[in-house]
Structure to design on (492 residues):
């Protein structure tokens, strides 16, 4: 199971392009941001693979990831049931296993607060479509209480009466969703039927999470989208073939579904689960070791809250004071390039003392490179949207490296992460709407491929950092930007 981010197929070094008015790096990640109208099959396969790998975090951070893999792969009765259902439906057993793993961790009694139940997490409405019986009846809970009887005589002895209450509730008399021998074959048959209906297994998997009506709409939008070959209408094509500036109707539909339940990513999660279960079969110890890589050293919660909490380690928090930052200048941290209109970001950091401003305007080369690359892609996408009456504003950077003493004093949350020099915060509160939309799309785009992680910090700020595997790439972007800056100074 690969967890590092490969750049071989997605990294392209290209000739300088774009407007001479702002920095355009020669090192590029193909297919990110504005680039959607020429998505080759090779690039699509590369992005799909990266997307599958990036889903590992969401699965392996869960406390039941190891126990669920053991249950799904070693339960002989369940394995026999899945193989039988697979043979009858024509679907791979590994697919049915992956869905059972994702949906319930192989627990036949699992129940979602949203309603779905059982090992395959089937809703009541879908259960009926599958031919499963869910029989309920209204019952009443009887309770009695004594209540005082009102009296006009204040001096009279209190009297009470007993009042009976009948509270209705729904009792389940039979629920086939909780019986794996019925639920698993029914789910397999249902998936096979959707594969025939929508013309592809990927769409059937998508529909298992999103619903047939949802997928019917998304499939129609994908077929009508520009730049998608008629014989290659797939879920990955749908997901990677739109942006705020290209196939916008499809992009908006995907965003709507993402906000609802992230269902457009379900296909990739299932494929990731298949890989993870294959790893567990080959080497359970390696699987357990992998799960430890997705535990946060900072959070006491039952699961890592976000990717940055996994990527950063306590040993990374080396800047305890401004003297530590001073000692690291030029090596572990570098000064941010302060040319807002050219590099696309503006420094608005606030030091503890005015004389310490120089230290607070620094971060690791990878962090500054990540910031520079995000600003470049955001501006490219913004300009491609041609927003009326809106002008690109350099991204306001409100935090780079900070000494531990200052971070503890000023802010909570993710403040200590800044003592690593590997993260930065962008304040988006004053950005034009089209620029904010572009920024969020670029962050999502880079995030889905595993290049960076980000979370909301407060009400109007984003906390961002690149993955350890991509630090060398973004450090190279910084070096390129620094060389350009030095060259421009010599030319003056």
């Amino acid at each position: 199971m690969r967890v590092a981010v490969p750049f071989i197929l997605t990294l392209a070094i290209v000739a300088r392009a774009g407007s001479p008015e702002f920095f355009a790096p020669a090192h590029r990640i193909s297919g990110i941001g504005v680039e959607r109208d020429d998505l080759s099959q090779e690039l699509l396969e590369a992005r799909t693979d990266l997307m599958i790998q990036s889903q590992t975090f969401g699965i392996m951070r869960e406390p039941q990831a190891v126990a669920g893999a053991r249950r799904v792969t070693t339960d002989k009765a369940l394995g026999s049931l899945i193989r039988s259902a697979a043979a009858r439906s024509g679907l791979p057993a590994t697919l049915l296993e992956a869905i059972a793993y994702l949906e319930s961790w192989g627990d036949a009694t699992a129940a979602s607060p949203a309603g779905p139940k059982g090992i395959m997490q089937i809703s009541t409405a879908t259960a009926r479509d599958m031919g499963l019986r869910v029989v309920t009846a209204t019952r009443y809970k009887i309770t009695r209480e004594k209540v005082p009887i009102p009296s006009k005589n204040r001096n009279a002895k209190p009297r009470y009466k007993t009042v009976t209450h009948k509270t209705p509730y729904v009792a389940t008399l039979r629920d086939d969703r909780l019986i794996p021998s019925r639920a698993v074959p029914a789910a397999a048959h249902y998936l096979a039927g959707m594969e025939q209906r929508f013309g592809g297994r990927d769409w059937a998997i998508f529909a298992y999470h999103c619903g047939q009506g949802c997928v019917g709409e998304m499939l129609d939008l994908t077929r009508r989208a520009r730049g998608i070959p008629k014989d290659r209408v797939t879920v990955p094509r749908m997901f990677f073939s739109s942006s705020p500036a290209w196939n916008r109707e499809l992009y908006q539909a995907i965003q709507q579904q993402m906000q609802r339940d992230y269902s457009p990513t379900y296909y990739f999660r299932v494929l990731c689960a298949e890989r993870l279960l294959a790893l567990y079969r080959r080497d359970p110890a390696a699987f357990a070791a992998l799960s430890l890589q997705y535990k946060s050293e900072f959070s006491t919660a039952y699961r890592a809250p976000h990717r940055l909490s996994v990527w950063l380690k306590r040993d990374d928090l080396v800047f305890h004071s401004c003297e530590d930052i001073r000692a690291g200048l030029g090596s572990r941290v570098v000064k941010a390039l302060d040319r807002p209109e050219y590099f696309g970001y503006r420094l608005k950091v606030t030091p503890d003392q005015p004389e310490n401003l120089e230290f607070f305007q620094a971060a690791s080369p990878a962090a500054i490179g990540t910031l520079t690359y995000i600003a470049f892609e955001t501006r490219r996408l913004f300009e491609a949207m041609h927003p009326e009456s809106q002008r690109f504003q350099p991204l306001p950077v409100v935090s780079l490296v900070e000494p531990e003493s200052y971070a503890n004093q000023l802010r909570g949350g993710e403040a200590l992460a800044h003592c690593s020099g590997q993260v930065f915060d962008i304040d988006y509160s004053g950005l034009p709407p089209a620029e904010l939309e572009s920024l969020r799309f670029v962050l999502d785009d880079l995030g889905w491929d595993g290049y960076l992680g980000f979370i909301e910090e407060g009400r109007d700020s984003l906390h961002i950092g690149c993955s350890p595997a991509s630090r060398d790439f973004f450090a190279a972007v910084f070096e390129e930007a620094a060389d350009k800056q030095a060259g421009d100074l010599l030319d003056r």
